[in-house]
Specification:
The structure is a homodimer. By secondary structure, chain A is an alpha+beta fold. Helix content of chain A is 34%, strand content 22%. Chain A has helices spanning 2-12, 20-23, 47-59, 112-120, 138-143, 151-154, 157-160, 190-193, 227-241, 253-259, 286-302, 315-326, 329-332, 349-363, 393-402, 405-408, 426-429, 432-445, and strands at residues 17-18, 27-29, 32-35, 40-42, 64-67, 84-87, 94-98, 103-107, 124-125, 161-167, 173-176, 202-209, 211-212, 216-224, 245-252, 275-283, 308-310, 338-343, 368-374, 379-385. In chain A, strand 7 (94-98) and strand 8 form a beta hairpin. The radius of gyration of chain A is 23 Å and the shape is globular. The two termini of chain A are 20 Å apart. Chains A and B meet through strand 11, strand 13, helix 9, helix 11 and helix 18 of A and strand 11, strand 13, helix 9, helix 11 and helix 18 of B.
C-alpha cells in the first residue's frame, strides 16, 4: 500500500491524495454518522486522472470504492479502512447546455441541484428530482439509476441519460458520449454502467436529456374506499391526463392516521377512509390543464371512484397536503422503525401488504407496518415498527417484507439499489441464471474484483 | 451437421425442423429477393425448445441466425447455406394484457401489428410504429431497438420494454420478465439484449409498456427560410406542446421539389422554400390540444419563424400532406439511389448536409443528395443518386455519407442497426475502446461465436 500511495502521489500530485490524518473525522454517509473509513481518499480533477488512479490501484490489487454525494440508501459507497476511496467531488463542471438538442453535458461530480438550476436559468428542465438533490451527484444518480418523484412522468435516471464516459477497472476510458435520441451503432454500452452501483466502472461524464419546464401544476388529495377504486382512479388519471400525470401517491389508511395524529399534521380529509391518494398534473398550458384536471375530479366524484377530495387554494396549502405524504416523522418517532423500498405489480399490492401486515402482527403484538407508495411506478415504501426491542428483529422484519415478493415477481429494491445492505435478498428478485449472468459481467469487466467489491453481488463473490 | 440434424429432430420433433427441400423457394428478406439460404430452418414452439435447439447447435459448433419478420434494413438476419436459422414465427402468443399496470406480455414472434390491435381492443396503445408493422415481430423490434414514427413522443423500443426472457448461446434461459417501472435489484440485464441484433442471445418473451390511446391529432406543413428557423421552430414546438409533440419531420427543399415534380405529389406549399416541416401534436384533450396547436402556429407566423403553413381540413388532406414526406417514389425512380439512416446533433445538421451534398456533386456532376429527417430525434435519412452507373460508386457514396459523421459525434445507424451491412463503418461512430468492450461482451456471452456471427462486430471477429 505504501508503494501504491507513492505511485499515486507521483502520478496525480500530492493535492489529489489524502490520508486519514488529512481527511480527518467525517461521517460515513448521510445515513450513518460512524467515522468515515479509507486508507486513502483520492480527489482527481479529470478523467485522465481517474484513469491513472484506477490503473495504479489495479496494478497493486487494491480495492477501490467510488463516491459521489454519500447519500445512497443501501451502503453501496461505504469504504473500508483498507480500501482506496475515489471521490468525484472536484469534477463538477457543467460543460455545455445545448438548448436546441435539449441536452446538458456534465462531469459526474456535478451536484444534481446545481444541474437543475443551471439548465433552469436557460428555460430548460432536468426532471430527475429527489430529496438528496443538494448533495447527490450526477455520477451517483447514474450509478444507482436514481428514481425520485418524477418517475411516472419522466422515467428513472436511465431514461434521462443519452451518453456516458466511463473508466474501467484497468483505466481504459470508454468515451460513449452519445447526444442523440437515436443511435443504434452497435451495443448501447452506457446501460452496463447505469444502475450497476460502481461495480463495473467509474462514471466520469454524462450527456443528459432535458425537457421543457412545466408551468402548470394541479394537485388534489382524495379519499378512496378500496384498492380496486385506487386502480380505477389510476386508469382514469392516466387516460385523462396522459403525460401530464406527474404524481400518483397512495397512502394506506393506517399511515394517514398515524401522520395526522394530534400534534402532527392537520388532516386534510376525514381520518377513517381505507386509502388516500395525492394526484398531481403538470403541463405547459395552465388554463386547459386546470380544466382537464377539474373535469377528471368531477368524473371521479360522480362515478363514486373517489369518496372525497380536497384541492389546495394556495401554494402553502399544496405544501401542507404534500407534507402529509412526505414528512413521516410521526412514523419514525417510534424506534426502531425499518424503512423498505420494494416494487411489485399493482394488482398484487393489496394482497402483498395484507400478508406483510399480518406477519408483522404475528411476530410482534404491538407491531405495525405502515405503507405509502408511488403506485403508478409499482413502488411501495413500507415502515415496519416492531414496537419492541429484541434480538434479530431487523432480520425478521426483512424476511417478512422481502420473502413474499418472490411470489409476485416483485423487487427487493425499486429505486435504492442493492448496495451492500440488500445483497442477501437479491435472490428473491433475481433467478440463479440472472445472478450468474451478472457475475459473468462482473468477472469480464473487473476480473480482479477491485471495483466496489461486495456491492450488488455480495462478498461471497470474488475474482 | 447430419448428427446435429438428427439430434434436433429427436429433441424437438420432425415438425420443428425443416430442410431446404421442405422450406422451398422463398426470398432472403423483404429487401432482397435472392433465394433464402439455410442448412436447416427451426421453428420452435416454446422457450424450452429454443433452449434445447441452441444447446445442441453449440454442442455441434454450428452457427445460428435468429429470424423474426425478415424486414430488417441492415442484413442482420440473413442466414447462409451452412447455418441453422431459428424462426420465432410459431411463438406469437399475446399472453396477457394488464390494463391497470398498462403492460402486455408476449412471445417474441408476435407481429407488431397484432400486438397493437390486441391492446387497442382494450382501449390501450402500444406506441411503437413503423412501416413493417404487418410483418415485423416484437423479438426483431427488441433485437434491433426499433425506432419508427413515434420516437420523439414515446422513445425507441428500448424505452417500451420492461422485461425480457432471453436464451443464451448455451441454452441457458434468462427469465428477466420484470413488469414494474422501477426495479433496481442488480444489473438491468435486458439492456444487454436490446439492440444487440441477436448476437448475445435469442429473445423469446417480453413485457412491454402501454400508454393511453391518443384521441386528438393536429397536423401542419410549414415552409421555413433557414435551418436556424428550423431550430427555433423545434424549440417552440417542444415548449408549447411538450409531450404532445408527436412528429417533427423536416424536408430539405430539394427533396420537397423532387417529390412534388409534375406527375408526382401536388405541392401543398410553394416549391421555392429552403425547408419544409410537418409538425404534429397528439394528446387526449381534443379541444384544448387543438387550441394549443393553433396558438403555436399563429405565434410562429407572427414572429416570422415560419413563412407559410397549411393545415389539412380532412383526413384525406392530412394523408396527402404526409404522403409528400413518406412516399418518395419520385426520389427512388432514378436508380441507383442509396438510402441512409444517420444521426447527429441537430446544430451540426445543416453543415453536415452541405458537406455531403458538395462531395456528391464533386464525384458525380449530375448527382444529388436529397434529405429529410426526424429532426427532433437527431435522425436524418439521405438519398444519394449518383446519376451515373459506375464501379464502386455505392462504396464511394457510403464514404461521402459516413466519414464526416466522425467530426460531429454522429452515428452511422440511427435506427436500422449495424447488421452485416454497416460493420465496416462501425468505427466511424464508436471508438476503439467502445468496440473492444463490445467484443469483450460478445466473447463473454457467446464464447464460441455461434450466435449471429459477423453481425454488428464483423466477420474478422471470432471466438
Amino acid at each position: 500500500m505504501e508503494k501504491l500511495e507513492s505511485a499515486l502521489r507521483q502520478s496525480l500530485g500530492d493535492d489529489r491524495v489524502y490520508t486519514p490524518e488529512q481527511f480527518g473525522k467525517r461521517a460515513t454517509s448521510y445515513w450513518d454518522s460512524s467515522p468515515y473509513q479509507a486508507r486513502l481518499l483520492l480527489q482527481p480533477r479529470s478523467t485522465a486522472e481517474v484513469s491513472r488512479a484506477l490503473a495504479l490501484c489495479l496494478e497493486h490489487r487494491v480495492e477501490v470504492v467510488t463516491q459521489g454525494g454519500l447519500t445512497g440508501c443501501a451502503r453501496g459507497a461505504d469504504s473500508r479502512a483498507d480500501q482506496v476511496a475515489i471521490s468525484l467531488q472536484r469534477m463538477r463542471t457543467i460543460e455545455e447546455i445545448d438548448p436546441i438538442a435539449c441536452t446538458v453535458t456534465v462531469q459526474a461530480g456535478a451536484v444534481l441541484q446545481e444541474v437543475q438550476e443551471a439548465v433552469a436559468a436557460q428555460g430548460l428542465y432536468f426532471p430527475l428530482d429527489l430529496g438528496a438533490r443538494g448533495s447527490c451527484t450526477i455520477g451517483g444518480n447514474v450509478a444507482t439509476n436514481a428514481g425520485g418523484t418524477n418517475v411516472i412522468r419522466h422515467g428513472m435516471m436511465r431514461e434521462l441519460v443519452l451518453g456516458l464516459e466511463v473508466v474501467l477497472a484497468d483505466g481504459t476510458i470508454i468515451p460513449a458520449m452519445n447526444s442523440m435520441l437515436k443511435n443504434n451503432a452497435g451495443y448501447d454500452l452506457k446501460h452496463l454502467f447505469i444502475g450497476s452501483e460502481g461495480t463495473l466502472g467509474v462514471v466520469t461524464r454524462a450527456v443528459l436529456r432535458l425537457r421543457p419546464a412545466p408551468c402548470s401544476r394541479d394537485t388534489a388529495m382524495v379519499a378512496v374506499q378500496g384498492f380496486g377504486d385506487i386502480c380505477q382512479l389510476l386508469s382514469m388519471a392516466q387516460s385523462r391526463l396522459d403525460a401530464r400525470l406527474s404524481a400518483f401517491e397512495v397512502m394506506w389508511g393506517d399511515y394517514y392516521r398515524t401522520v395526522t395524529e394530534p400534534g402532527w399534521h392537520r388532516p386534510p380529509l376525514d381520518r377513517d377512509y381505507p386509502f388516500y391518494a395525492i394526484v398531481e398534473s403538470r403541463g405547459v398550458d395552465p388554463g386547459p390543464d386546470h380544466s382537464s384536471f377539474m373535469n377528471l375530479l368531477e368524473e371521479l366524484l360522480g362515478t363514486g371512484v373517489i369518496a372525497d377530495a380536497v384541492i389546495p387554494k394556495s401554494e402553502s396549502e399544496r405544501e401542507s397536503l404534500w407534507a402529509v405524504r412526505e414528512d413521516f416523522d410521526a412514523v419514525t418517532a417510534r424506534q426502531p422503525t425499518y424503512l423498505y423500498d420494494v416494487s411489485l405489480p399493482i394488482r398484487h399490492m393489496a394482497q402483498y401488504v395484507e400478508r406483510v401486515q399480518s406477519a408483522v402482527r404475528a411476530s410482534w403484538p404491538g407491531g405495525t407496518c405502515l405503507v405509502f407508495g408511488h403506485i403508478g411506478d409499482g413502488n411501495l415504501h413500507l415502515f415496519v415498527t416492531p414496537g419492541a426491542v429484541g434480538e434479530g428483529q431487523h432480520e425478521l422484519s426483512d424476511r417478512h417484507v422481502y420473502t413474499p415478493l418472490g411470489d409476485y415477481g416483485g423487487s427487493v429494491s425499486a429505486e435504492h439499489g442493492i448496495g451492500r445492505e440488500k445483497t442477501p435478498w437479491l435472490s428473491v428478485s433475481r433467478s440463479p441464471a440472472e445472478v450468474e449472468l451478472m457475475r459473468l459481467l462482473k468477472r469480464s469487466l473487473d476480473p480482479h474484483n477491485t471495483l466496489n467489491p461486495g456491492v450488488v453481488l455480495g462478498d461471497g463473490f470474488g475474482a
